């Protein structure tokens, strides 16, 4: 599997294109906002000769879904999201206006994601891991064979996602990280929703939110 990161919109959100040797692809967290950004995404997909089959989101925050409708229009693909984040998509226009975004079209969700589901494209199968905390319906996408994890806004390099937004919960995000993510192994490479890549091994050593729990042997409630 190959991964490309394109960073879009004023929030510097990471949109990922994943594909394999078949040429089938998925677009994760399409945050392209301006026509120039949409053209950059379209041009990359055309340059690589890819055939998108799905738009999938790790969660429903507006900076991660600004380009979903454009992707659906361009490629005729369905949109997948965990149902617990449906309320965020439904209120995207309101939330977008709070941050200066104009959301003209709210995408319809055709596929509901659940923990343990698979996102399939070509010969590749990504495992859906439900990681609530940043949002109630947040998911990570994991490829065990290549030890690659798309963490969305649950886990960043040396930080974690905000929990002070609607539906956020600090206890839940830490429980998701400690119980659902770290057991995958320190060699796993993470691709977050903002910022650069890291490994779980690095985060175990240098992420202050994680080390506080691990060194204090305190389990999140």
What does this structure look like?
There is one protein chain. It contains eight helices and 14 strands. It has 221 residues and is an alpha/beta fold. The chain has one domain: Metallo-beta-lactamase, Chain A, CATH 3.60.15. Strands 1-2-3-4-5-6 form a six-stranded mixed beta sheet, with helices on one face. The protein has a six-stranded mixed beta sheet with strand order 7-8-9-10-13-14. The radius of gyration is 16 Å and the shape is globular. It starts with a strand and ends in a 5-residue tail after the last helix.
Tag the structure with descriptive keywords.
Metallo-beta-lactamase, Chain A, 221 residues, 14 strands, single chain, 8 helices, 6-stranded mixed sheet, alpha/beta
- Integer count of domains: 1
Mean pLDDT comes to 96
As a percent range, the share of helical residues equals 25-40%
By oligomeric state, this entry counts as single chain
Strand content: 25-35%
Could you say which structural class the secondary elements and strand pairing correspond to? alpha/beta
Q: Do you know the CATH architecture?
A: 4-Layer Sandwich
The coarse overall form would be: globular
Kindly report the name of the CATH homologous superfamily. Answer: Ribonuclease Z/Hydroxyacylglutathione hydrolase-like
Enumerate the spans where pLDDT stays under 50 for 5 or more consecutive residues: none
